[in-house]
From TrEMBL:
<dbReference type="Pfam" id="PF00480">
    <property type="entry name" value="ROK"/>
</dbReference>
<comment type="similarity">
    <text>Belongs to the ROK (NagC/XylR) family.</text>
</comment>
<dbReference type="InterPro" id="IPR000600">
    <property type="entry name" value="ROK"/>
</dbReference>
<protein>
    <submittedName>
        <fullName>ROK family protein</fullName>
    </submittedName>
</protein>
<dbReference type="InterPro" id="IPR043129">
    <property type="entry name" value="ATPase_NBD"/>
</dbReference>
Length: 297
């Protein structure tokens, strides 16, 4: 049996898992990410890997973008301020003596869902996570499509609404500023509502609050328009939606599918399939291991 290490670096926690070639998670550990000192987190990673006690094929690592995937460099993820322009791949290879493969979290989630999840058996899988932010990945025959410089599927800043809402460093009217959980909650609170997360905004809308209903309508409408655009450009077999908003807001995935069907050519409606992700929080770890095993073929 062959083994790989999958790592999921988040703004709050880092998870490290030993995964076999059948994508079964044998062992996992979690610890706080040091958002200011990446070397500290890498030392913790090495300690965990040493403790597994198995020979491994390599390390796959999922990290928030944007990333320079060609050179293995973390660029400017907002939730990891001390990691900006950090040579992650090179540093971790030196510490562990193992080959390291860096990929953004959306791409790895897509790869996992394409390999053993909701997109298994499909040639063209489009994944989107609708959560704190909006990320994406596209796989063709279980291979990540990265584009010319590795920035394919960096969709968060895609502009759909002229002079629309914005947040952080994103442009006005970007899809993440409209349909992410953060955006839905922020727009509700800016309008005078009191919401801790998007699920509460949805509940207010169900109870008849028109402001909340309008905010949810914007999320549904612009996100489904975006998927319609992706369908016209990429013609995927399936859309897989993950993330807390997509999976926890009742009928979110169904609502998006119904609307996307109305936004493509009538003759193509039956080709549109939008389904929920099935691997949960393990998709980044499994995708990272998949990346390692692919590299060894």
């Amino acid at each position: 049996m062959k083994y790989a290490v999958g790592i999921d670096v988040g703004g709050t926690n880092t998870r490290v898992a030993l995964i076999d070639e059948n994508y079964k998670i044998i062992e996992r550990r979690q610890f706080p990410t040091n958002e200011e000192e990446p070397e500290t987190t890498l030392n913790d990673i090495k300690t965990v890997i040493d403790g597994f006690g198995y020979p491994v094929e390599g390390i796959g690592i999922s990290c928030p973008g944007p990333l320079d995937l060609i050179n293995g460099v973390v660029l400017t993820p907002p939730n990891l301020p001390g990691w900006h322009y950090f040579e992650l791949t090179k540093c971790l290879e030196v510490k562990t003596g193992l080959s390291v493969y860096l990929e953004n979290d959306g791409n790895l989630a897509c790869l996992a869902e394409a390999a053993i999840g909701a997109g298994k058996g499909k040639g063209y899988v489009q994944f989107l996570t609708i959560s704190t932010g909006i990320g994406a990945g596209f796989c063709v025959n279980q291979n990540i499509f990265r584009g010319a410089k590795g920035f394919a599927q960096e969709v968060a800043n895609s502009i759909l609404w002229k002079n629309g809402p914005f947040q952080g460093n994103l442009k006005k009217g970007s899809i993440e500023s409209i349909a992410s959980g953060t955006a839905i909650t922020k727009r509700a609170n800016d309008a005078g509502l009191r919401a801790a997360h998007a699920g509460e905004v949805y509940q207010m809308a169900q109870e008849g609050n028109q402001t909340a209903a309008d905010i949810m309508e914007d999320a549904y409408e612009y996100l489904s328009s975006f998927l319609g655009i992706l369908y016209g450009v990429l013609d995927p077999d399936i859309f897989v939606l993950g993330g807390s908003v997509a999976l926890k807001v009742p009928r979110f995935v169904e609502e998006i599918e119904e609307r996307v069907k109305e936004k493509v050519y009538d003759a193509l409606k039956d080709n549109v399939h939008v389904v929920p992700a099935v691997l949960g929080e393990d998709c980044g770890l499994i995708g990272a291991a998949c990346l390692v095993f692919q590299s060894k073929k």
